[in-house]
């Protein structure tokens, strides 16, 4: 069940996302499911501002990130572990042991199992998502089964091209696969917010909301989730029949 909010620009979208996040933060010690990439950065800035101005504490909060590139050392400048520390964790008072980011090195199969096992001990109260221009959520690419749990996924050419901007514009530097929470793992979250801005997300957003539920658009599985808020700017909403 989707609630769709369309705002004028990225800043407004981020503020709206933060309002939802703040309500969850106010409930006590929630478990947060977090994403990387450009979409949630504005939300994380709001969380940092709120921590600094209002003293909102993350001492008792657990976080689980969606994914990590395979083959990058943890401290690589573009690993998702680094991304999360630079964009959020280093600026709030979360204890390092409360942070969970999948491991993209070593025995990948074993890491995936261990991550899913840890995740299953908890209920994610709010899951933050972006969406790929090919309809992926986390790194569950088109064709990924709806019942998937944490696994390694080969990245599509489209995703590697989209993410080359973080790797000096060079697709060859973008890892070929990632460890990712599965679609079934994501669906267990109590509440989901999905942030999408920019025209290159418009088709994926339309397919997610108005298309058939199909593995061709992994995000369409969210049609079955009871509590998903989709936060869009106007270009990302531009292909929705609803807004025409
Ligand atoms: C990142 C993730 C991906 C991104 C998606 C959109 O943890 O899970 O699904 O959310 O690729 O990326 P941006 O926000 O950079 O457009």
Describe the structure.
The protein has 244 residues and is an alpha/beta fold. It has a single domain (2-237), classed as Rossmann fold, CATH 3.40.50.1360. It is 31% helix and 18% strand. The chain contains eight helices and ten strands. The strands form two sheets. The chain has a seven-stranded parallel β-sheet, sandwiched between helices. It has a three-stranded antiparallel β-sheet with strand order 4-8-7, with helices on one face. α2 links the parallel β2 (31-34) and β3 (62-65). It starts with a strand and ends in a 7-residue tail after the last helix. Fructose -6-phosphate is lined by residues 35-39, 66-67, 130-132, 136-139.
Keywords for this structure?
single chain, 244 residues, alpha/beta, Rossmann fold, 7-stranded parallel β-sheet, 3-stranded antiparallel β-sheet, 8 helices, binds fructose -6-phosphate
